[in-house]
Design a protein that fits this description.
Low-confidence stretches: 1-6
Number of strands: 6
Oligomer: single chain
Order of helices and strands: EHEHEHEHEHEHHHHH
CATH architecture of the largest domain: 3-Layer(aba) Sandwich
CATH class of the largest domain: Alpha Beta
Structural class: alpha/beta
CATH topology of the largest domain: Rossmann fold
Shape: elongated
Distance between the termini: 37 Å
Helix content: 40-55%
Number of helices: 10
Strand order of the largest sheet: 2-1-3-4-5-6
Length: 210
């Protein structure tokens, strides 16, 4: 519980988390705060914007890896369609590239899930107050790592290469020629200092570039 003087109206929170047990636990714990109310819960990224437009939350608390649409892509959509809703990313994956992409998408905060609920509740209040809240260690790592070296198209091709897709499969899915796909894959392998596209995909994911 918070000892602060409560607002006239509780902070309205939309919670997006694909794991049901985690989502329920977060909703329960946040609901114990006197000045926070979870007004909507969704399990997929492509449900976030519709829920925000319906329930008008003050804060959207988003995981990154969600079915349908990533939390990062949803954050960018919220910035356009629900600008009054501030975004706080809460994820298991504290990757420097994810933090950089979250800030570019308009997120106002980025925390990892291993912190106490009091820290999360405090971050929600601070984000509502106009602050940007970022895990300090992750912020330092992001500055040290620098921006992603991959172009948007190289990222598209790497994503499409998952699950054993052939060059022909990737070319068809992205409406590119096979030679262009090979060029993008070669560039991505070189930029990630790896030996093949599978390693390049793993390396890019580990850095949060995809």
């Amino acid at each position: 519980m918070t000892d602060e003087t409560p607002r006239a109206h509780p902070v309205r929170v939309l919670l997006a988390e694909d794991q049901g047990m985690m989502r329920g636990a977060l909703a329960l714990l946040l609901g114990m705060e006197d000045d926070i109310e979870v007004v909507a819960q969704v399990s997929a990224g492509d449900e976030i914007v519709a829920a925000a437009l319906t329930h008008r939350p003050d804060i959207a608390l988003l995981d990154i890896e969600l079915p349908g649409l990533s939390g990062l892509d949803a954050a960018a959509e919220l910035r356009e369609r629900a600008p009054g809703c501030r975004v706080l990313i809460l994820t298991t994956f504290g990757r420097p590239g994810y933090l950089r992409r979250a800030m570019e998408a308009g997120a106002a905060g980025f925390l990892v899930k291993d912190g106490p609920v009091e820290e999360l509740a405090g971050a929600i209040r601070r984000v509502l107050g106009g602050e940007t809240v970022v895990d300090p260690a992750l912020a330092a790592a992001a500055l040290s790592a620098g921006p992603s070296p991959l172009t948007a198209r190289e990222c598209d091709v790497l994503r499409a290469s998952a699950d054993g897709a052939t060059v022909a499969d990737i070319a068809g899915a992205l409406h590119l020629s096979e030679s262009t796909v090979r060029n993008y894959l070669s560039a991505a392998i070189g930029k990630t200092a790896t030996r093949n596209r599978a390693e390049a995909l793993r390396a890019a994911r580990a850095q949060g570039w995809l």
